[in-house]
Design brief:
Layout (H helix, E strand, L loop, with lengths): L2 H4 L8 H37 L3 H29 L1 H21 L3 H15 L4 H12 L3 H12 L2 H39 L17 H9 L2 H30 L4 H28 L2 H21 L4 H30 L4 H30 L2 H18 L20
């Protein structure tokens, strides 16, 4: 690792305040993902049926919100770096609530799309990336345990919110479901971000040593390893998020009813939790490159299983759990890959640059999955292509290890 070259000293809160921040983020990130992400695959068929808009169009607008979230991550990262997580994450929650209210009442496709774009701006301040940055900042060497704790809890977002959303839709339709979910954001996420997160970063840090952190970050970003890692994680992210959003339509094509398909999506959340329990021992026993290859290979294999296994429903449920496990491990791999290779000193700068293409891959994933199904004649064929893309990502990860530095030239051995 080159943490000394990147060279930003530890910046930590007291343990009690850091733990309070972790508990707060466990609740708010779980709720945010459940409301803003996992509710959509459950409600999208009902939205299309009620409005007459095609499922591909509805999914494309949801994908557009993810694009906005990716683009917004740059501004969010800068604001968070200057002020800490409380202001940016509170503001994001305040934007999300009216966005969902407008979404629920929209009778026009353009207004529906505009509401999703506003929700996407909110997502950039509510999802994993700002939370990961905060925890890495607060915990430094204990970051893996903190990140694992957050993702273990947030991995249950689909388990809690997919069945809940299905029940709300059955009772009040998709519009009523989104109104209730907006109220959940207003009553849970807004006050917790405003009052329970630590108010600011600790004292500003002066860069120590004679190195130039900016130059070291630029050297990393120009290297083959950075781009190989970015490409491999982008392909894996595209695959797993396309699977999440398109799993319900796939299972419906396999003959499952909407409620059972929603439960399968929820069980995928249980799989995420199980997968994240595996990550800590996996990290201790494997080097960064083989670990990345193994995780992306698991994403490819489980996606191909979903493409190839037609049933029965119990087997489909089991495969959904396995796919969730792979997705859960991938989340922690993305959270730790930068620090594993280049240390924590330049984590925010390097991961911020890497995050934009990853978020764009996540953003396009729902639409790509639906579009592939339309072009290829069904969701099984689309999932087969997605599995192949993850396999390419696993192969690309082989080149993601930083090259060792050459040994210093002994005195008198330089060029004459």
């Amino acid at each position: 690792m080159i943490s000394d070259a990147l060279g930003v000293p530890a910046r930590v809160l007291t343990a009690a305040r850091a733990h309070r921040g972790l508990v707060t983020l466990c609740v708010t990130v779980t709720t945010s993902y459940g409301v803003l992400f996992y509710a959509f695959p459950v409600l999208s068929p009902a939205i299309a049926a009620d409005t007459g808009w095609t499922l591909t169009t509805v999914t494309a607008l949801f994908s557009a919100s993810q694009v906005v979230a990716g683009l917004g991550s740059v501004a969010v990262g800068r604001w968070l770096h200057r002020r800490g997580p409380r202001p940016v994450m509170t503001a994001a929650a305040l934007v999300a609530v009216p966005s969902l209210a407008v979404l629920a009442s929209a009778g026009d496709l353009w207004l529906f799309g505009a509401a999703w774009l506003a929700a996407g701006a909110a997502m950039s301040g509510l999802f994993y990336p700002p939370a990961f940055a905060a925890l890495t900042h607060w915990y430094e060497q204990g970051r893996v345990r903190a990140l694992t704790a957050l993702t273990l809890v947030a991995g249950l977002a689909s388990t809690v919110f997919a069945p809940l959303t299905a029940a709300l839709e059955q009772a009040w339709g998709w519009r009523g479901a989104y109104l209730v979910l907006a109220a959940v954001l207003a009553l849970v996420v807004v006050p917790l971000h405003a009052f329970a997160l630590p108010p600011a970063w600790s004292a500003p840090v002066a860069h120590g040593g004679s190195g130039a952190p900016g130059a070291a970050v630029r050297a990393v970003v120009r290297g083959r390893a950075f781009w190989a890692l970015t490409a491999s994680l982008a392909l894996g992210s595209l695959t797993v998020y396309a699977v999440v959003v398109n799993l319900v339509p796939l299972l419906a094509a396999r003959g499952l009813d909407a409620a059972t398909a929603a439960w399968a999506l929820g069980l995928g959340g249980v799989g995420q939790v199980l997968g994240r329990l595996v990550y800590a021992p996996l990290e201790r026993r494997s080097a960064p490159v083989p670990r990345a290859v193994a995780v992306l290979g698991a994403c490819a294999a489980t996606t191909l299983l979903l493409a190839l296994v037609p049933g029965p429903w119990a087997v489909l449920m089991a495969v959904a759990v396995l796919a969730g496990m792979a997705r859960g491990v991938l989340t922690l791999l993305k959270a730790t890959a930068v620090a594993d290779r280049w240390g924590t000193g330049g984590y925010a700068a390097i991961s911020g640059l890497m995050h934009l293409p990853l978020m764009l891959a996540v953003a396009l994933a729902p639409w790509i999955g639906a579009a592939l199904a339309g072009v290829l004649g069904g969701y099984p064929a689309a999932f087969a292509v997605l599995g192949a893309l993850a396999a390419v990502g696993a192969a690309t990860a082989l080149a993601s290890g930083p090259r060792p530095r050459p040994p210093p030239i002994p005195p008198g051995r330089g060029r004459r």
